[in-house]
Amino acid sequence: MDKRPLTTHLFDTLIDLQEDLIREVLPREARTHFLAARREALLGIRSLLDEAIERTREREERQGDPTQGPVKRRDPSSPNGTIPIED
Description:
This protein has two helices and two strands, in the order H-H-E-E. By secondary structure, the chain is mostly helical. Strand 1 and strand 2 (82-84) form a beta hairpin. The radius of gyration is 23 Å and the shape is elongated. The two termini are 40 Å apart. The mean pLDDT is 80.
């Protein structure tokens, strides 16, 4: 029995089916365009992930190391301007 999670297995199966369809059904020129489009879509997803990773990194730098206790956020009504946030 396959030990991969069901979603991973389904995703891999869909990718395999897509590749089979492109390889066996479409004319060569159409294959070239569809494979290029898939590559561009994956590069777009990579760009989105890179941007999300960068925003997360910047947020962590602004807030300090999240493993070092609760984050203090600004509170203009507080005498020292911060409110401790506890998990």
